[in-house]
Design brief:
This protein is an alpha+beta fold. It folds into two domains: about 160 residues, Orthogonal Bundle (Triger factor/SurA peptide-binding fold), CATH 1.10.4030.10; about 100 residues, Chitinase A, domain 3 (Roll). Helix content is about 55%, strand content about 15%. The strands form two sheets. Strands 4-3-6-5 form a four-stranded antiparallel sheet. A three-stranded antiparallel sheet has the order 2-1-7. A hairpin with a 3-residue loop joins strand 5 and strand 6. It starts with a helix and ends with a strand.
C-alpha cells in the first residue's frame, strides 16, 4: 500500500510540474449505468473518472476495463464497511487530503487543479482516500476476527509470570454519543449544525443532564454507548477520548450521520486478565505488522470472498 501511495504522489507532482494536458474526456454527469453491484449502480461517469485517475498514475492497458474492475471492488468494499459499521468522517478525509498536498509541496488549490485538469476531480480522490482508510480498518477487523495477533489466556498468564506476576493497567471509559443529525441531502447545512453541536458541547458537564440540555434542539440523538477499555476504542475517536477527562466532551467530528461528539461519563483503571490479553494483543499486533506482499494477499482473499457472494451485473 505504501509503495502505491509513493507512485501516486510522484505522478501527481510530475503532472503539476509539467502542466498536465487534459485527461480522459468525461461524459456528462447525467450518465448511463454500466455495472450494478448488489443493487448499487456504477456509471460511465464514475468509470471515466477512475480511468483518468489510473492514467495519472501512469497505468498501462485498457484503462476503462481496469477502472470498471476497480470500481466494482470498491463498491463491494464500501458495502462491507457499511455492514461492519465503519465510517470515515469528512474531517478525517479532508485532513488526509491536506496532508497529501503538504507532503508533496502543493497548495490545496494546486492539488485540486491537477486533479480537475486530469479529469479525476478532487471529490473522486477524496472518496478514494475515504475508502483506503475505511478498508484498512475492515482488514484489521477481519484479522482480529480470525485470530490475528490475539493473545490467548494461557499466553497472557505466561507473559505476566515473566513480568513477576504484574498485570498491565488500562483505562475503561463509559461513553455517551451525541449526534446532530445532518441528512445526506442537506450536507450544506453542516456548518450550522456544527455550531449547534459546539454550543451544547461547551455546556456539557456530565452524561446525566445531556438529554435535558438537548430538549428543544431539532434532530439530536443521544445514545449511551456503555463501557470501552482503551484498546477497544474506535480508531477515529481513540485520540480524542484519551485526551478528555471524565465529565467533559470530546471535540466534534463530522461523520456520515452529521456532527458528533462523545461525552466521557466516567473513567476507571482496570487490571485484570481480559485487560492483559487486550494490551498484549495490541503490542503483538504493533510488532507483527504484515509485510506488503502478505497484506496484499489478505486483501485479495477478502475481496475474492466478497465477489463470490455478490450479485454483479455488467451492462
Amino acid at each position: 500500500m505504501m509503495v502505491r501511495k509513493h507512485i501516486l504522489a510522484a505522478a501527481i507532482v510530475t503532472a503539476l510540474g509539467s502542466g498536465l494536458a487534459a485527461g480522459i474526456s468525461l461524459p456528462a454527469q447525467a450518465s448511463d449505468v454500466k455495472v450494478i453491484v448488489n443493487g448499487m449502480p456504477i456509471t460511465d461517469y464514475d468509470i471515466a473518472r477512475r480511468a483518468a485517475f489510473l492514467k495519472l498514475q501512469h497505468k498501462k492497458g485498457n484503462l476503462t476495463q481496469m477502472a470498471r474492475e476497480e470500481l466494482t471492488d470498491d463498491m463491494l468494499k464500501r458495502q462491507e464497511m457499511r455492514r461492519l459499521n465503519i465510517t470515515i468522517s469528512d474531517t478525517e478525509v479532508n485532513q488526509a487530503f491536506e496532508r497529501f498536498a503538504t507532503n508533496n509541496k502543493m497548495t490545496l488549490s494546486q492539488l485540486t487543479g491537477v486533479l480537475d485538469k486530469a479529469g479525476v476531480t478532487a471529490d473522486h480522490f477524496k472518496e478514494y482516500i475515504r475508502l483506503q482508510m475505511g478498508w484498512g480498518r475492515a482488514l484489521g477487523t477481519r484479522n482480529r476476527s480470525q485470530g490475528g495477533s490475539r493473545v490467548s489466556e494461557q499466553d497472557a498468564v505466561q507473559r505476566m509470570l515473566k513480568d513477576g506476576g504484574k498485570k498491565p493497567v488500562s483505562t475503561e471509559y463509559t461513553l455517551q454519543q451525541v449526534i446532530f443529525v445532518v441528512p445526506a441531502t442537506d450536507r450544506g447545512n453542516i456548518a450550522k449544525r456544527r455550531n449547534e453541536a459546539n454550543a451544547l458541547r461547551a455546556k456539557f458537564n456530565g452524561c446525566d443532564s445531556t438529554r435535558d440540555m438537548a430538549k428543544g434542539i431539532l434532530d439530536v440523538t443521544v445514545r449511551d454507548l456503555g463501557r470501552f477499555v482503551e484498546q477497544e476504542l474506535p480508531p477515529e475517536w481513540s485520540k480524542q477520548v484519551k485526551a478528555t477527562s471524565a465529565g467533559h466532551a470530546t471535540t466534534t467530528l463530522d461523520t456520515d450521520k452529521g456532527v458528533e461528539f462523545l461525552g466521557i461519563c466516567a473513567t476507571r483503571q482496570l487490571s485484570d486478565d481480559r485487560v492483559a490479553r487486550l494490551v498484549f494483543s495490541q503490542e503483538a499486533a504493533a510488532a507483527n505488522q504484515k509485510p506488503d506482499a502478505t497484506a496484499e494477499a489478505v486483501n485479495k482473499q477478502y475481496v475474492d470472498d466478497l465477489r463470490k457472494k455478490a450479485s454483479i451485473v455488467n451492462r
